[in-house]
Amino acid sequence: MASAAEQLAANLNLGVLAKATELKKRIWFTLAALIVYRIGTYVPVPGVDAAVMADILRQHGSGILGMFDMFTGGALGRMTVFALNIMPYISASIIIQLMSAAVPALEALKKEGESGRKKLNQYTRYLTVLIAVFQAYGIAVGLEQMQGSFGPAVYDAGLFFRISCVVTLVGGTMFLMWLGEQITARGVGNGISLIIFAGIVANLPSALVATLELGRTGALSPVFIIAFLLIALAVIAFVVFMERAQRRIPIQYPKRQVGNRMFGGENTHLPLKLNTAGVIPPIFASSLLLLPATFAGFAAADPTADSWLLRVANMLAHGQPLYMALYVALIIFFAFFYTAVVFNPTETADNLKKHGGFVPGIRPGQATADYLDRVLSRLTGVGAIYLCIVCLLPEILISQYGVPFYFGGTSLLIIVSVTMDTVAQVQSHLFAHQYEGLIRKARMGGGRGGTPRLR
Fold this sequence. Notes:
Structural class: mainly alpha
Membrane topology: Multi-pass membrane protein
Largest sheet: 2 strands, antiparallel
Radius of gyration: 26 Å
Order of helices and strands: HHHHHHHEEHHHEEEEHHHHHH
CATH class of the largest domain: Mainly Alpha
Subcellular location: Cell membrane; Membrane
Protein name: Protein translocase subunit SecY
GO cellular component, one term: plasma membrane
Number of helices: 16
Strand content: 5-15%
Keywords: Cell membrane, Membrane, Protein transport, Translocation, Transmembrane, Transmembrane helix, Transport
């Protein structure tokens, strides 16, 4: 009996060690891939003057250039091979998702399971290449026209530079797309999200140093800096709480008899997140709102510009009432829009009806769909208000006190969300190991003719 118990313990310890080794390999692979990404953000595009690009970014860093430079981890400001980052792939993914809800052929592929998902992923890659080519060519043409305090941004403008710039930037985006897929398959967490996360986190130390430098020079008081850091911690805690919040709809399945045995009768729940849209609404709202503001800022920099361009640039500046109002309106719109895309109450109600499930007190079918839609609309309304609060509070600090752009609400949402998802995946690996150990123990106990007891 003692030898059998010792053998069982040895087997379980070997399982623990093997699972821990596999998890370590995944973590090290993820770290190595992110290091490769950070190295690529310092490899410059041939023919571009890095000093001129840094000067231009300092002049227009408060617009869409600053936001995209934040997402790329500084690669856009340095104009490196990863200047486009993974943004074309994200745009392509969102477009494919929207089209799969509107185009019947793509909607049918979405319902085919694994084979349909592979085809949609392939379409996403093709669209990524197309978007990256257009964006890279636009950047190449824009670089040729840029002038900084140190001269032109491009050493030798012309067709050869445009071709080399497009090939370099598109190649960098495709490499990052492949690297993100490898992280997802062989590492820990979602690879695409981790690449954006790494770009933002890499610049947080410099942003913190810039904030402390403002305190050293007297631009900000030490009391304000301490209060700002405490507010940042409070916002992070608030984001964690709200991202975990969900409404659990009770679901019941009726009992059915097959022969002499009874099946069914389970009670479960349908979890509906408070913020179903995630970080998509702030990203879309910032992009759409900062785009005209940036164009107006560039145009207003021209001495011959019309006065109305100056007024537009001033009204759409950070902290202005019009900017805040449009920002809130766009966040609320995209929160409801994207939630409607990713969750279909009618389809969910039909699936419940097919499997015999029902919400207590609600008739199956259309009544269930209406109930789910009503609950989801209320949750989305609260989630949209939460996104507006998180995004507007840092926006006020940025506009009124000159806090660096990296402490914005969008960046905090991305950091917290990706961290929570990665930690959840690590925990799932550990839980899977524990269940494997229990199953192995049960099988060994059953093989000796005994009845195992699982605690």
